[in-house]
Write a structure and sequence with these properties.
The structure is a single chain. With 145 residues, the protein is α+β, with helices and mostly antiparallel strands. Helix content is 22%, strand content 19%. It has 2 helices and 7 strands; from the N terminus they run βββαββαββ. It has a 3-stranded antiparallel sheet with strand order 1-5-4, covered by helices on one side. The chain is globular and about 45 Å long.
Length: 145
């Protein structure tokens, strides 16, 4: 992944991300693979995790195991409950193939990205500048991690 000091902070949610019917708040494009107990979605918000689990357990036992697999290659952290990922600055709004990323590499990058976002917000009066696929915006960073 790109050096975290140069990485663009990209929000995982943006206007019109939801393309499928029957949206679940905070869980973009939640869907079930027909005929299987396999579900897919975009990167959820912190509240969206619970919303997705509530939806899944409507028809299945709440005591049963649930395996959640995240297929992201780039570091992803949460700012004020919203997912934010580190992107190479030239890969905003497009798929970023980052190569052979291991779990250990990703965990290290997420720690560095969290520290970088905290430093950026601190240097900007508590506000964090970020991008989504459409525009550049600012959040007041109350919680990063």
């Amino acid at each position: 992944m790109t050096d975290m000091h140069n990485a663009a902070a990209m929000a995982d949610h943006f206007d019109k991300i939801q393309k499928l019917p029957n949206p679940i708040e905070g869980v973009p494009n939640f869907r079930c693979v027909p005929g299987y107990q396999v579900y897919c979605c975009g990167q959820p918000t912190v509240a969206g995790f619970e919303n997705a689990l509530n939806k899944v357990t409507e028809n299945y036992p709440k005591e049963g195991p649930i395996v959640w697999i995240n297929m992201r290659q780039e570091p992803s952290v949460y700012v004020n409950g919203n997912p934010m990922c580190a992107r190479p600055p030239n890969k905003i709004g497009e798929y970023a193939e980052l190569g052979n990323i291991t779990r250990d590499m990703l965990e290290k990058d997420e720690e560095e990205f969290t520290d970088e976002l905290k430093a950026r917000a601190e240097a900007n009066g508590g506000k964090l500048k970020y991008q989504d696929c459409l525009k550049t915006s600012t959040w007041e960073a109350r919680h990063t991690g």
